[in-house]
Design a protein that fits this description.
The complex is a heterodimer of chains A (about 270) and B (about 280). Chain A is mainly alpha-helical. Chain A has helices at about 15-20, 20-35, 40-60, 60-70, 75-85, 105-130, 130-145, 155-185, 195-225, 245-265; strands at about 90-95, 100. Chain A has a two-stranded antiparallel ribbon. In chain A, helix 3 (about 40-60) runs parallel beside helix 6 (about 105-130) and helix 7 (about 130-145) runs antiparallel to helix 8. Chain A is flat, with a radius of gyration of 23 Å. Chain B folds into two domains: about 5-240, Rossmann fold; about 250-284, no CATH class. In chain B, strand 1 (about 5-10) and strand 2 form a beta hairpin. Chain B starts with a strand and ends with a helix. Classes of the chains: A mainly alpha (about 270), B alpha/beta (about 280). The interface between A and B is medium-sized, with 27 and 32 residues.
């Protein structure tokens, strides 16, 4: 459970951590668009160099980024197999039994994989450097214009932030209950199918009752402090764009422009 | 055979930017057959320490000897099940671990996992429930219907039914009323005196530690600050000051008496013994 890297916040202080969450969210959308538009390797190279720079500024080791790729390995292999069987253009590189492997199959797969890896790295960079609560504040700000069409932006943001807030708590509870059941001889890793069902049951049932208990407690605590859904609320934590935030967005806009232009000129 | 920690360190989130050394080269011996308390402020590493005792956590460095088991850092462990049967660990707020339909089935869950037959498991469960003071008419109720204190007793019975040689309890009295806490402690003392179990209690409650625990370990920032007889710790004003702890009431009373000129021996630790020695000296 502790090995989950994708989406995990790293609570340290760095240049990237100090950027405004709204700037980082906008940057994320711009950069992901920039990754998906181009057909040229050159754009990827530019994005990768900027990404490496951002990682350096975020004080996040390359190790963590590489770890976040792990869950994708199966998908990449799957992609390679499908492409190898279906794409029949370019030169024949080699034959595997009855299957002829074409250069375009390998090339296209590599292209998509690099695209995916860049996208995961960018997202990991965002979640690793942004406190989940700041992230929801940013999301709420971005959703704000939708309130004109009566979209409950604040309520949605509150729900998201409560959900995010409870992930570590629920993980902690899960670990605690798992440890308690392990102490009673439950083996979560090995065993026959029926034993595994019993093991999972011994975890799920207490977890549910704890989650409900927590939810009631939170609802009481919120009501006790005068929370009314939909009421106008002031903020304790006010987000403020600074000069560096504008520069950051500007760089992202430039990358996207370069990426779009590359389709016509490269 | 005592429990021995040898240069044991434990690092959370090893190899991550926010790695944290929770235990720092611990050398420690915990005596067999006595009640030992582990105290220290929050985050001092108490829970990390006890989770090593039944191999829920494995040492990052160093090693640990428990009963006949030897746990060494970076080695694959093969005896997890027998070790966990012999070392019973009761967690903080253990009432949340109950999940079976009936109380007795929940308590029999552990023995079943450790390979006892269903009949034997139920027999052990009934015995354990009686020990913790759950009435027979409650055996077939749902554990979720019980009160908080009763749930915790059932959870403790769930460990006792596995018949461990060492029982480790993390804050067993937290959140209980004084009467409930008292009964809980009496149960541990009885398990220790009558059945010779080694009992290890993690606690914040200095009064309880002084009154019931033979040995005390003080932990701070992942290091052992004190390991020895409980009385020697609490009678030492310098040490209490160093660890930022309050004198238990009886120790204050004893110190006041000594100041007034009474000569109390090392044996005069409980109210009863103090009263006896004072009475003798008043007679003379």
């Amino acid at each position: 459970m502790n090995n989950l890297v994708f989406g995990k916040y790293i609570p340290i202080d760095s240049f990237m951590h100090r950027l405004d969450p709204r700037a980082k969210l906008i940057g994320l959308f711009l950069m992901i668009a920039a990754v998906f538009v181009p057909k040229s390797w050159w754009v990827f190279l530019v994005i990768a160099i900027l990404l490496a720079l951002a990682l350096l500024l975020a004080k996040i080791g390359i190790k963590m980024i590489v770890q976040s790729f792990k869950p994708m390995i199966m998908m990449m292999i799957f992609l390679l197999v499908i492409n190898a069987l279906t794409i029949k253009t370019g030169d024949i590189l080699f034959t595997l039994g009855p299957v002829e492997i074409y250069s375009d199959a390998i090339f296209n797969t590599l292209f998509v994989i690099v695209r995916l890896l860049l996208m995961i790295s960018i997202t990991t960079l965002l979640t690793a450097t942004t406190n989940p609560l700041d992230l929801t504040l940013g999301i709420e700000w971005l959703l704000h214009p939708l309130e004109i069409v009566h979209f409950p932006a604040h309520e949605v943001a509150m729900m998201v932030s409560i959900a995010l807030r409870f992930i570590p708590t629920i993980i902690e509870e899960t670990m605690r209950i798992m440890n308690a059941q392990k102490s009673r001889g439950v083996d979560f890793e090995n065993g026959r199918f029926s034993e595994k069902i019993a093991a999972i049951l011994s975890l799920i049932v207490p977890l549910f009752s704890v989650a409900f208990e927590r939810a009631y407690e939170l609802a009481d605590a919120m009501e006790a402090r005068g929370y009314v859904p939909g009421a106008e609320r002031t903020r304790y934590h006010v987000l403020k764009f600074r000069f560096t935030d504008y520069i950051f967005i500007l760089i992202c806009v430039l990358v996207l422009t370069f990426s779009i232009l590359s389709r016509f000129y490269l | 055979m005592p429990i021995r920690f040898k240069k044991l360190s434990y690092i959370y989130n090893k190899d991550m930017p926010y790695a944290h050394k929770a235990l720092d080269e611990i050398d420690l011996e915990i005596k067999e057959g006595v009640i030992t308390a582990i105290i220290g402020e929050t985050g001092s590493g108490k829970s990390t320490l006890v989770e090593h005792l039944n191999a829920l956590l494995l040492p990052s460095e160093g090693s640990l000897e428990v009963l006949d088991y030897n746990i060494v850092a970076n080695q694959k462990q093969r005896f997890l099940k027998p070790l966990r049967k012999d070392v019973g660990l009761v967690f903080q707020f253990s009432e949340y671990q109950l999940f079976e339909e009936t109380v007795i089935k929940d308590v029999a869950f552990g023995p079943l996992n450790f390979g006892f037959t269903p009949e034997e498991a139920l027999k052990r469960a009934a015995e354990a429930l009686k020990k913790v003071g759950i009435r027979e008419e409650d055996f077939n109720r749902s554990p979720l219907e019980l009160s908080g204190g009763q749930k915790r007793r059932v959870a403790i019975a769930g460990i006792l039914s596995c018949d461990p040689k060492i029982i480790v309890l993390d804050e067993p009295t937290a959140g209980l009323d004084p009467q409930g806490a008292r009964e809980m402690i009496d149960l541990f003392v009885e398990l220790n005196k009558k059945e010779g179990k080694t009992v290890i209690i993690v606690s914040h409650d200095n009064e309880m530690v002084y009154n019931y625990c033979d040995e005390t370990i003080v932990l701070s920032h992942g290091k052992i600050m004190y390991n020895g007889p409980t009385f020697d710790l609490f009678a030492d004003k310098e040490k209490l000051k160093e660890f930022n702890m309050l004198e238990p009431q009886i120790v204050s009373f004893r110190n006041d008496l000594c100041e007034k000129g009474f000569r109390l021996s090392r044996d005069a630790r409980t109210l009863k013994q103090i009263a006896k020695e004072v009475a003798e000296q008043v007679k003379r």
